[in-house]
Predict the 3D structure of the following.
Amino acid sequence: MTSPTGYAARLHAACRAKNSVVCVGLDPRFEMLPREFTEGRDAGPAARAAAFSLWARELLDVVAPLAPVVKPQSAFFEVLGAAGVAALEATVAAARERGLLVILDAKRGDIGSTAAAYAQAHLAAEGADALTVNPYLGRDTLEPFVARCRDAGKGIYVLVKTSNEGSADFQDVGVVDGGLLRDRVASAVAALGATTPAAQDGFRAVGAVVGATYPRELADLRRAMPHAPLLIPGYGAQGGGAQDCRPGFAAGGLGAVVNSSRGLTFAFAKGEHAERFGHAGWRDSVDAATRAMRDALNEVRGG
Amino acid sequence: MTSPTGYAARLHAACRAKNSVVCVGLDPRFEMLPREFTEGRDAGPAARAAAFSLWARELLDVVAPLAPVVKPQSAFFEVLGAAGVAALEATVAAARERGLLVILDAKRGDIGSTAAAYAQAHLAAEGADALTVNPYLGRDTLEPFVARCRDAGKGIYVLVKTSNEGSADFQDVGVVDGGLLRDRVASAVAALGATTPAAQDGFRAVGAVVGATYPRELADLRRAMPHAPLLIPGYGAQGGGAQDCRPGFAAGGLGAVVNSSRGLTFAFAKGEHAERFGHAGWRDSVDAATRAMRDALNEVRGG
């Protein structure tokens, strides 16, 4: 049995091939979808879930040439119960069919055999390429996910410094032995990453989530985890700009992908692209917003 | 509109009515279910999910008189994808039909509108009574869940000190201003609880998870969060005993429920009850194990 190609190698190959580090977040909300998907589909969770799947497929057609990776947010699918989870499964499959990598944003975390069940559920062979995970329960609880990185070429992104204001409450607590809690978590990320195979550029399969809303912290954490792929949320709607993301990239301009959700997928709803293309031109506004983000990041990331 | 009865009041009424503080954990694993449910049902996720639902319903019939609350572990249902989530929904409904409260163990946590989506998904009017949540992202990310406590009579259990060995890695980190990280989280639990209505005995809707495997910490944390309902995992299979749980109870013998999963639901697979009742007598072994746990806790909890 040959080892599967590691997550970082696959991600970076995709970034190079598309000359893009954009991650398109898929946060479907029924009320916000283009009307062509919602009309006649408001009769319960199964109908709404069908709208999600149809929308996602068409959206993926638009963004596939412009982004290496998409990030479905599990919560918005879970709202629709089992029907929503079926729509999530269909969306992950549709992304893979279009050559997109998939980061499932589910922020799972639990102990022992329960963590193993989450890893099995969300990093299945035919499922997502990577999963966001929460470190609060401890390093041993990340191990079952790291095992999937080693054995199945999957990746994880551990929450280190999230983009919200309240992220300071616990993540930025000063630790008696020095540094902040997030530095502790970053050390664990680096150590766990070292147990996964290195890609040619040195990157490992254990990554970290660090918000674009904290550029100084992003620079510190990039140094602390030089071989961790970063997932940078907080771009656009949350206030982060391309310049804020610059410290997240390694020499060569890779090592991070930057996520935007509403700012891309619902670009038809407000702002410059909305005015230009109108509601019916939603595909064009997604296309224009994704290109603009791609180009803005390419300008700052170097490489 | 009258306010719904708060979670703590409903939980304590149920504990009194059944004279029990046992929480029965539902962690279905196909290979471990009694054969009568698995035979002929190994052909894919839908068949396995059907086995989960059937098993859970019969199990709930056995434990309903003996326990106030059950705790389905979402991960084991999520392993079966959408079919598993449908089985989870059916299990929650079956528990409620039998007068059981439901703590959904899903350890969710995310920011802003995503947290709100998780709260909507897992604390729906007809869904679980309470949800386990992860605090790492910060206090603001717990707020949408607390809002469901206030508005819909639901409860949450925030992870404070989990039962696993690695829980020390981050939860027990010493904080510069004094105390440990878990004490910080406990303060947030108490403060958030104070924003929810008090039950007659003073308890609030914001609870905490503290492992039976750490009895000293349990005593400290009980004092730090005098009105937080505690969910105590780690009993039985993980090594905690009734004596270890004693510090978790408030005067009056309430304020905490103690969870056991495998030790109750799979009591037919090994140990004294297995020998006595055999595989075919799985209902009797669940009944005996649950009664034994109930009685052991009643002996130590006072009240």
In short: Residues 100 and 201 of chain A are 21 Å apart (CA to CA).
